[in-house]
Amino acid sequence: MADMQFDLVVIGSGPGGYVAAIRAAQLGLKTACVEMRDTLGGTCLNIGCIPSKALLTASEKYEEAKHGLGGFGVKVAGVELDLPAMMAHKTKVVQSNVEGVQFLFKKNKVARFHGRGVIDAPGVVKVVKPDGSAETLTTKNILIATGSDVMPLPGVTIDEKRIVSSTGALDLEKVPGRLVVIGGGVIGLELGSVWQRLGAQVTVVEFLDRILPGMDAEVSKHAQRILGKQGLSFKLGTKVTGARMNAESVTLTLEPAKGGGETTLEADIVLVAIGRRPYTEGLGLEQAGVALDNRGRIVTDHHFRTNVPGIWAIGDVIAGPMLAHKAEEEGVVAAEVMAGQSGHINYDAIPGVVYTWPEIAAVGRTEEQLKEAGIAYKVGKFPFTANGRARAMQVTEGFVKVLADATTDKLLGAHIIGANAGDMIEELALALEFGASSEDVARTSHAHPTLTEAIKEACLAVDGRPIHI
Ligand code: FAD
Ligand code: NAI
Question: Which of 73, 141, 274, 443 could form a disulfide with 183 if both were Cys (CB 3.0 to 4.6 A apart)?
Fold first, then answer.
């Protein structure tokens, strides 16, 4: 029988768990990872970041081939959608990524256990296998990285066929005629964009009076305008109060968020995307005495220790943005602290990206947050219409906006809506991490012609001296 004693048992193999396991193994800890899913990689690799980006890119290619190449003098005829082939592309991408994690586990000698991990006591994890049998692992440390699950909406029961979560929306067998998305957040806009490009008529119903509530308001307003031009329609300030299944369709009942008369909306498919909640079901947290906050998240200190010695937690199951790279950073720090090193995460410099077209990316604070905190700031903005490379690429929509401290010029936040914004934001994340000023970035040489010159110009604009506008 295999040795069942470990220095660390990680429960969950998402970006938080698998990265923590690899880092711990690198540092010499004897490490196991328990995952109940058949494949490794968690939500992100199996049903989240990776499959959604595979479909976003594929649907962009379709859209571009259909409507976007004429302006470059490229004539294309007979463009057709082959949805099963597009889905096969997605499946292949997922498969190669999850197999990659399996390879990395082998390479780093992380022992993998397939089953549900249950904490029997501090230092004891029971693995309940799919066939119902169980084995027990003993360990010095337990790291909970069980992630999150879809937030349900009362009265709109998900069946993953006609009323779907993101998981079902990544796997539809045909393009719906009418897709209604409940929630104008990241999932709603990304997956709404996919199906809109493939031919669905998409309506986004959002409770608040704006989409992307966490983003800088100017950026989210601009995003709504661009997505609206692409064909998405928005019902803001509206709540869904119920769903009735008909033979072929679903009838949703809607009400103004502030109260008022009821209306109905017909859909072929409904996507519920109103957020995610931490997943701690069946983990044995109560018997272990692990404390949760009022939103069901595991409470930790800044080194990811829970209130129970030897039990740690990271990723979507604790507080903070539900992002894969945030979970990864936490996994690395937790493993390093367990191994006796020190670690630190700067939550002010974690970028967030919405992979719509164009992309929307942000790091640091929004104007609204700075106003609320009473911090005096300066704004520098530069539109892609004035960027030579953007014109050459025919991607002139959007702008770069940077926010710098009015007195010290230290960068406090940056927001980009435009082509490749998700890649470009990294320069500004690095700048924030290093405590740079807008002047530092403005004085850094940016290759010409690149889209990143818009970042330099936005930083120049902080002091009213952009060159190209
Ligand atoms: P998870 O990835 O959720 O992994 C947790 C794992 O634990 C799961 O595999 C689960 O099966 C397992 N588990 C749970 N309980 C047990 C148990 N008791 N025993 C054994 N195993 C257990 N983030 C981004 O940064 N960029 C994106 O582009 C992005 N796109 C997304 C798209 C979609 C559609 C969704 C749904 C999410 C997306 N996210 C994205 C969010 C991202 O997926 C999460 O932030 C990330 O996966 C969190 O990682 P984690 O390790 O905390 O948990
Ligand atoms: P979200 O929090 O981004 O958006 C949910 C939206 O639904 C909000 O705008 C909210 O106001 C609205 N809402 C809430 N209740 C509602 C109701 N009853 N009726 C109508 N609207 C309602 O959550 P989403 O899109 O489900 O994504 C979940 C998580 O996954 C996010 O936290 C995000 O960080 C992560 N994710 C990240 C991605 C990325 O980084 N590109 C992509 C997809 C998901």
Answer: 274
Cα–Cα distance for residue pair 380/447, rounded to 1 Å = 20
Provide the pLDDT for residue 2. 54
**358 touches ligand 1 (CB under 6 Å):** no
> What pTM value is reported for the model?
0.97
pLDDT at 3 over 80: no
The b-or-e profile of 273-299 (16+ CB within 10 A means b, else e) is bbebbbbbeebbbeebebebeeeebbe
Would you give the end-to-end CA distance of the chain in angstroms?
71
β-partners of residue 462 are none
Would you state the pLDDT for residue 1?
45
19 Cα–ligand 1 center, Å: 12
Peptide linkage before 15 cis (omega within 30 of 0): no
Cα torsion through 427, 432, 435, 437, rounded to 10? 70
Distance of alpha carbon 10 from alpha carbon 207, whole angstroms: 37
- 211: tokens are 């989409």
- Closest by alpha carbon to 114, among 131, 97, 96, 98? 131
Which DSSP string corresponds to 138-166? EEEEEEE---EEEPPBTTB---SSSEE-H
Q: How far apart are CA 349 and CA 370, in angstroms?
A: 15
Give yes or no for residue 34 CB within 6 A of ligand 1: yes
The residue contributing the CA closest to ligand 1 atom 26 is 49
Percentage of the chain beyond pLDDT 90 is: 98
Residue 68: per-residue pLDDT = 83
Q: How far, in Å, from the CA of 182 to the mean position of ligand 2?
A: 9
Q: What is the pLDDT of residue 413?
A: 98
- CA gap 147, 40 in Å, rounded: 13
Q: Is 446 a catalytic residue?
A: no
Q: How far is CA 384 from CA 56, 217, 379, 417, 451, in A?
A: 22, 19, 16, 9, 8
Substitution site in 158, 180, 204, 207 for ligand 2 pocket (most atoms within 8 Å of beta carbon): 207
Q: Choose the catalytic residue: 67, 302, 448, 468.
A: 448
Q: What is the pLDDT of residue 343?
A: 86
Task: Say yes or no: CB of residue 145 within 6 Å of ligand 1.
Answer: yes
This model of the complex carries an ipTM of 0.99
User: What pLDDT is attached to residue 129?
Assistant: 96
H helix or E strand, kind and range, residue 196: helix 186-197
Condensed to tens digits (0 to 9), the pLDDT of residues 100-133 reads 999 999 999 999 999 999 999 999 999 999 999 9
Q: Ligand 1: distance of its center to the CA of 280 in Å?
A: 13
